[in-house]
Amino acid sequence: MNEKEALANIRQKIDDIDLKIQQLLNDRAAMAQEVARIKMDSGEQADFYRPEREAMVLRTVMERNQGPLASAEVARLFREIMSACLAAEKPLQVAYLGPEGSFTQAAAQKQFGGSVELHPMTTIADVFHAVETSHACYGVVPVENSTEGMVSHTLDRFISSPLKINGEVTLRIHHYLLSKEKNLEDISKVYAHPQAIAQCRQWLMEQLPQAELVPLNSNSEAAKRVAAEPQNSAAIAANRAADIYGLSILARNIEDEVDNTTRFLVIGTQNVGPSGVDKTALLVATKNKPGALQTLLKPLADNSISMTRIESRPSRKGIWEYVFFIDIEGHIHEPAVASALSLLENESSMFRILGSYPKAVL
Amino acid sequence: MNEKEALANIRQKIDDIDLKIQQLLNDRAAMAQEVARIKMDSGEQADFYRPEREAMVLRTVMERNQGPLASAEVARLFREIMSACLAAEKPLQVAYLGPEGSFTQAAAQKQFGGSVELHPMTTIADVFHAVETSHACYGVVPVENSTEGMVSHTLDRFISSPLKINGEVTLRIHHYLLSKEKNLEDISKVYAHPQAIAQCRQWLMEQLPQAELVPLNSNSEAAKRVAAEPQNSAAIAANRAADIYGLSILARNIEDEVDNTTRFLVIGTQNVGPSGVDKTALLVATKNKPGALQTLLKPLADNSISMTRIESRPSRKGIWEYVFFIDIEGHIHEPAVASALSLLENESSMFRILGSYPKAVL
User: Fold this and answer.
1) Which intervals hold domain Chorismate mutase (chains A, B) (predicted)?
2) Residue pLDDT, tens place only, A110-134
């Protein structure tokens, strides 16, 4: 068999595989529609998107994958397949913090795939509002945006919102050094958000030991400032800021940590079931007495429950001075979590479960 | 069988389907790797990405699709499957006109799927340069951006570049009315690129009959102008301009035509084979005599070949006063096209085939 015949032969095999895949994709969509029909018949308010079920499918797919496709690639394809099947069940509206092209849009696409309708909102409050008023089924907002410091807006919004956390998305974020200059040696000043400076400290020490580091409110502001100055300055910012402010990229991916990720929350109205690997978010206030926080957290340690994050925020309701946002590992349906949380609730002056949801798979 | 059992039953069937799909996806990737191996062994310069083959697969998939998944959805899934298989063969670098979040990025993703490495470039010339110097295998540039008028940069670049056209992508574009005002009745002036005004004329007449329409160089400039003015003005622009310039969205999708698409070209070094439904792009200059253009185009009409577009541009080489960019239907391997082009070549003082490539499928 010559090369041409060999190639034609394999292409025919690929065509045969494609026919089978297409049949199976449509079979799967038909099954998903059947699930939808049964749920509708039951008369209850039906949740078509099931974050815990999707997380379980993706984990299974990744665990059993033998290649040659990389596990993350296969998971990405299954995310899209589930997205398409869901759209055949019921078109999903998802609001996110815009503009188009924002990291939050990328996070929303990563979570929901390409078949949902994504609606950019101008503020985090607008995203909450869209879901609260049922204009969108779900919302996606940044919660730990290490470089832009937007965390507080999202957390504060939960104090007054009835919405729940239905999922989390993590995204890798890269930093770029932007300037009007063409050479690193001409840079004597670097502007950036303090956290961006911290994340690139080693690179800055090695490449720009002579440069003055000037902290600003945001990386966008840094890029804007560099654009307005005649020379010798640079900004740490996202790629896109180069075009918006007419700067050149002097260096790429200058973050010290290879794994510089930003975290987003999926907000919704659903109670998400356990997926096997879950997190639970709490909003609590302590009684106003010394050692109150330690007492509050003791049940978690006693039950060997990991706390992955705690953040204090001034309460706006005037009843408590501070509220705490606490993330723990586990789902409220797990007995150890349920009993620890019941003890924790006794010690708090305010206690709300913001949601149990699957830990980000990819 | 109660509802819970029925759902569990269907979920099990979905899991079984998923297992089969995953196996087939990996089988397909293994076949693609085998194709790559045969090509490498042959010693020739191998093209791993075959636009005509992808177009044929997508057309077949859409034609035979029986649902319940929509044909466009299945095609989108197959685009992603081919993208993942290609990445398993050879990671592909694609340069595009940035910034991230631009329409051109969306076009690049639509053409190449989510598994390629996309690199944003600052200018159209930079995209050409990246491909010419082999820093990217392919480039994606706008060619008929009806609202921003960037057409000329791309066409002019072909006059001096050896690159070929390897594909086209079409994208639907929406217009938004952006303003600091909250009510339409407060708008007395609308800024926009003349083509954007033309595309929204009916909507403007109905909704803002009293408003003065002010043409500017680009819609981005219009948004910027509105941001700088105290009140009563609005801009027609893309969604994202709202956030960049701090404006509110007063109205969405105000274009009169439902099908307001923008066209992009995939540029590369490849000779793309016929897919069955193709287009060919020509760059020609006429001999300087009366009626030369009519004579030039006669062979096309005589051979019943449709010309889909003609655009004259001033030549920068000084030898010809004008050059013409001509798009026709058909592939240079089709006998009618070949013979018509050979006649056309005789009539022209300069003649270059910029490429035959598959017509956009989706």
Assistant:
1) 1-93
2) 899 888 888 888 788 889 999 999 8
What is the nearest CA distance from A32 to chain B, expressed in angstroms? 8
Q: Is A50 a member of any domain?
A: yes
For chain A positions 206-265, those within 8 Å of chain B (CB to CB) are: 238-240, 242-244, 248
Place of tokens 């204009």: A135
- Reported ipTM: the value is 0.71
Q: How confident is the model at residue B288 (pLDDT cuts 50, 70, 90)?
A: low
- Helix residue spans in chain B (DSSP H): 3-41, 51-64, 71-89, 103-112, 124-132, 151-160, 194-199, 201-207, 219-228, 239-244, 292-302, 335-347
Question: Is the pLDDT higher at B149 or at B266?
Answer: B266
**Count of domains for chain B:** 4
Print the domain residue range for A290: 271-362
Query: pLDDT over 70 for what percent of chain A?
Result: 90
**Same-domain status, B280 and B351:** yes
Confidence (pLDDT) at A45: 60
| A58 belongs to a structural domain | yes
Same domain, B158 and B266: yes
CATH of residue B131: 3.40.190.10
Q: Is residue B255 scored above 80 in pLDDT?
A: yes
Q: In the predicted model, what is the mean pLDDT of residues A160-169? A: 93
Is pLDDT at B319 greater than 60 in this prediction?
no
Contact A73 B88 (CB under 8 A): yes
Residue to substitute from B100, B109, B171, B176, interface A, most A β-carbons within 10 A = B100
Per the prediction, chain B carries an average pLDDT of: 86
B169 and B191 inside one domain: no
- Cα-atom radius of gyration of chain B, to the nearest Å? 24
The dihedrals phi and psi of A164, each to the nearest 5 degrees, come to -110, 165
Rounded mean pLDDT, B111-137: 88
CA–CA gap between residue A26 and residue A39 (Å, rounded): 20
Which stretches of A180-286 are assigned E, i.e. beta strand?
Answer: 189-192, 212-215, 233-237, 248-251, 261-268, 278-286
Number of H helices, E strands in chain B: 12, 14
Whether residue B241 sits in one domain with residue B288:
no
Asked if residue A276 and residue A243 are part of one domain, the reply reads no
Cα separation, B355 vs A358, whole angstroms? 49
CA distance A344 to A341: 5
Of B112, B264, B324, B325, the catalytic one is B264
Residue A340 predicted with pLDDT over 90: yes
Tokens at residue A189, please? 């000043």
Enter the tokens of residue A58: 């993706």
Is residue A263 a part of any domain in this protein? no
Same domain, B122 and B46: no
A128 located within any domain: no
Domain boundary among A57, A89, A121: A89
